[in-house]
Amino acid sequence: MSGNWTAWKDPRRAATRAASNPVVRHLCAWAAVAFITAALPSCPVRAGGPDEDAVTLSVANETREPLRCTVLFAHFVSRDLGAIAPRAEVSLSMFRQGNDGALWIPRADGRRMMIETIDCGAAAEMRGQVPLLSVHASRHLRYHSACRRSGAVVCTDPVPVQ
User: Which residues contact 25 (CB under 8 A, 6 or more apart)?
Assistant: First the structure.
């Protein structure tokens, strides 16, 4: 027999050699696809768990100009809720954790995007926050807040809606 068998005796060199083999890479890729496919039926349909509530917050624009609301998540990530026409409103669906009241929205991959705040306004220097403390602290499932202009935009504390 010929060949360099010492490469297969050394685990570091053997792993490098196996990883460079296209057949091994192909088999690993198919094994990963098979594992993911087998795990998919067990994924929950509902993003929240049994101790979590699906919560809806509507924000009304009570100004004479369009407002834009932005959900700010951790790590400087944001989601624009779009323009809200005067006398119109936008609704945001989210989840509330049962143990601490934290609010979150699921990402496309199912992971949680924790909500830090919601800002509304026409221009960056005049934006106001929708206070979320009452949504964190209570157990209601639907809330309503209204944003008005008083120099800067001021949004009311969300109140429960029946």
Answer: 19
Q: Strand, coil or helix: what is 146?
A: strand
Are β-strands 112-121 and 67-73 bridged in parallel, bridged antiparallel, or unpaired? Answer: antiparallel
What pTM value is reported for the model? 0.67
Among candidates 139, 111, 143, 112, which has minimal Cα distance to 130?
143
Helices (H) and strands (E) in the chain, counts: 4, 10
Task: Look at the block and give the residue holding tokens 């602290």.
Answer: 137
pLDDT single digits (tens) 41-92: 333 334 556 668 999 999 999 999 999 999 999 888 999 999 999 999 999 9
63 and 53 Cβ atoms separated by less than 8 Å: no
Q: To 10 degrees, the CA torsion angle through 41, 47, 52, 55?
A: -150
